[in-house]
Automatic annotation (TrEMBL):
Residues 4-148 form the UspA domain. InterPro entries: Rossmann-like_a/b/a_fold (IPR014729), Universal_stress_UspA (IPR006015), UspA (IPR006016). This is Universal stress protein. Belongs to the universal stress protein A family. It comes from Halorubrum tropicale. It comes from the Archaea. It holds the Pfam family Usp. The lineage of its organism: Archaea, Methanobacteriati, Methanobacteriota, Stenosarchaea group, Halobacteria.
Length: 152
């Protein structure tokens, strides 16, 4: 199966692993000349705070999730790394549940692969706190690559 479209789930917690995520995307998408869809998902509170911090007027037409995601530090860094490697990509923003939004994006763009980042957690930690990455892995319409955060 050739890879034509890759969706990357991006959240603020991915700031620590942008280089690892970019390297994985470059390895997956670069040789296949695939399109990467950087999908930054905000919860409501984070979206409002980020929009205000970046200077967007809440009532302005340009204060969309796509625009806010495009100016968010983590997404910009990933975009710069992909551009430097010649990987075609676009940026999407969404407000809501990370797993739901990523799965819906993957379905909408008919993704061949989804990439999610995360940290290793104990089984108890997953049971108590849940895991958006785990939910994406179980619900995605295509294979999912998990990029684990390195131990600091």
């Amino acid at each position: 199966m050739s890879i034509e479209t890759v969706v990357l789930a991006v959240g603020s917690a991915d700031e620590k692993r942008t280089e690892r995520l970019a390297n994985e995307l470059i390895a997956l998408a670069g040789p296949a000349d695939a399109e990467v869809v950087l999908t930054h998902v905000f919860d409501e509170e984070e979206f409002d705070e980020t929009r205000a911090r970046l200077g967007f007027d809440a009532d302005a037409e340009n204060a969309t999730p796509d625009a806010v995601a495009g100016r968010h530090r983590t997404t910009r860094e990933l975009s710069n790394l992909l551009s430097a490697a010649g990987v075609r990509h676009s940026i999407r923003g969404a407000v809501g549940d990370l797993a739901t939004e990523v799965v819906e994006t993957a379905e909408g763009v008919e993704a061949d692969r989804v990439v999610v980042g995360g940290r290793q957690r104990s089984p108890t930690g997953k049971a108590v706190f849940g895991s958006a990455a785990q939910e994406v892995m179980l619900s995605a319409p295509c294979p999912v690559t998990f990029v684990r955060e390195t131990a600091s």
